[in-house]
Amino acid sequence: MPVLSLEDAFGEMDHAGWQLLMQGDKPRGVEGLGDRIFVIGDDLVTTKDENIEKCAKNGEINASLIKANQIGTLTETVLAMLTSLAYGAELVVSHRSKSPNDPFERRLLRP
What we know:
With 111 residues, this protein is of the alpha/beta class. The chain has helices at residues 15-23, 49-57, 68-71, 74-86, 103-109, and strands at residues 5-7, 24-25, 30-31, 38-41, 63-67, 90-94.
């Protein structure tokens, strides 16, 4: 089975590692994977629009993990989603682990 995505492949402060994974290093003959798989930022972006914008601009991600109960409000969640889409990054919608089993989260995704 092929690998379709990598989530949190590096630490939040390893921006060079994220860029290398996405873009590669042509002079050293290292191919990036950003054109073949989803490189998903989770802890890297924490459903926060400023983090998503910075990481997408820097070529560190091509997908954002969105957790409505991670950032604080639905407005902030929608802003994070719109920011991701504006920079051409895909959305992967999830919920936080150990989250209460709240039916609202399910209804948010499927009206």
